[in-house]
Amino acid sequence: MRIFDCTTFYSEHLMMDVRFNVLNEFVEKFIVCESTYSHSGKKKELNFDINNYPKFKDKISYIVIDEEPPNIIGDKNGLAEPFERRSDSLKRINLSYDYMIKSLSDINDNDLVMLSDNDEIPNLNSKQFKRSNKDIFIFKQLFFYYKFNLLYDLVPWFGSKAAKKKKLLSMSWLRNLKNKKYSFWRFDTLFSKNKYINLEIVNDGGWHFTNLMSAEKMYEKYSNFGHHDEFQLSGLTVKDLQRKIDNKEMFFNHFVDKEKYKERWNFDYKLKKINNDKLPNYLQSREIQTKLNQWFD
Fold first, then answer.
1. Cα dist. 210→96, 117, 281, 288 in Å?
2. Spatial CA neighbour of 22 closest among 295, 278, 288, 282
3. Which residues of 9-48 are buried (b: 16+ CB within 10 A; e: fewer)?
C-alpha cells in the first residue's frame, strides 16, 4: 500500500518543512495545492517554492489553482452576509479538493489517499495504524498552539483522514467524515455515505500544530481562512493575539456555538507545556530543537 499525502498551502513554510521531514519515510508522494486566491477571495501571490525543499523535490507534486470556482456569490460591494462569505469559502476549498483528486488518477485501488491541513501531521508510525486492515482512517491528534510543546488538552483533534482509493468517494467526503465508528449490526451503515463499519480511529494519530507564527501572520491567516467572516466579527486585533501568545492562552473556544462569536473568540484557557517525547521523532532531535528554538517554550 502506497500513501499519497494531500494538503493545501498558503504561506506556512515552517509547517511544510516539518511535515515533509516527519512523513517522508512513509509517503510515496506529497500533493501540495496552492491557489492564487485566499479562502476569503483575495488575490494572492504564490508562496510555495519546490526548490526550498530539495530533499523532497522528487516526491512533491505542486498544483496551482488560478481560477475562482463557479457560482461565487462575491463581496456584493461589501454587503455580502457572513453566511454568503462562508459559502464562497467552502466553494474555494472544495475546488482545491477537485484539483487534488484529478492529480491522483494513476494510483491503485489499495493505495491510501490522505488529506490534512498542512499543520495536521498524522502518525504513520502508529502501531495501531500499521496493523489495521481497514480501508478508512481518522487520526486522533494532540492539539498544540503557538509552540511545538504547548498543548491544548481540552480538545482531541480529528484532523488527518485517509481512505483507500477504492473507497474514496471525493476529497470533500473524506474531509467531512465523522469521527465515529459504527457497530457491525448497524444496518443503516449499508446505505450511508457518512456512517462506516470499516473505519479505524487511530488513537495515537499524530499532532496538530497550529498558529506557530507571529501575531501579524496569525491575523492575516484568520482574516483569509475559511471562517474569516467569524473572525472579522470577533473584533480581535494583532495586539490581542500577541497578548494571548505571551500569556500562553487560547483565544478560541471550541465549545461555544458559532452564533455567539464574541464568546467563541474570547477565551483564556491556559496551555500546558508537555515533554518533548510526545512529539514526532524529528522534533525530538536536539539539533532540530536548537534550529527551531523560537518555536519551543
1. 21, 10, 18, 18
2. 282
3. bbbbebbbbbbbbbbeebbebbbbbbbebbbbbeeeeeeb
Q: Which DSSP letter does residue 155 get? A: -
| Residues found in the chain | 297
CB 41 within 8 A of CB 72: yes
Over residues 12-36, the pLDDT tens digits come to 999 999 999 999 999 999 999 999 9
Q: Alpha carbon of 266 to those of 44, 79, 146, 273: distances in Å? A: 29, 26, 17, 21
Backbone φ and ψ for 200, nearest 5 degrees, come out as -115, 125
Cβ(127)–Cβ(193) below 8 Å:
no
Distance CA 250, CA 123 (A): 25
- What is the C-alpha end-to-end distance of the chain, expressed in Å? 38
Going from N- to C-terminal start, the domains of the chain cover 3-128+159-178
Residues 239 and 33: their CA atoms lie apart, in Å, by 31
74 contacts 80 by C-beta, under 8 angstroms: yes
Look at the block and give the residue holding cell 519546490: 50
Residues 114 and 168 sit within 8 Å (Cβ to Cβ): no
Residue 190 has a pLDDT of: 41
* Cα–Cα distance, 267 to 263 (Å, whole number): 7
- Three-state DSSP class for 287? helix
Dihedral of CA atoms 160, 164, 169, 170 in degrees, nearest 10, equals: 40
Whole-angstrom Cα distance, residue 240 to residue 247?
Answer: 11
Per residue in 204-248, pLDDT (tens digit) is 999 999 999 999 988 888 877 656 667 777 778 899 999 999 999
C-alpha–C-alpha distance, residues 234 and 265, integer Å: 6
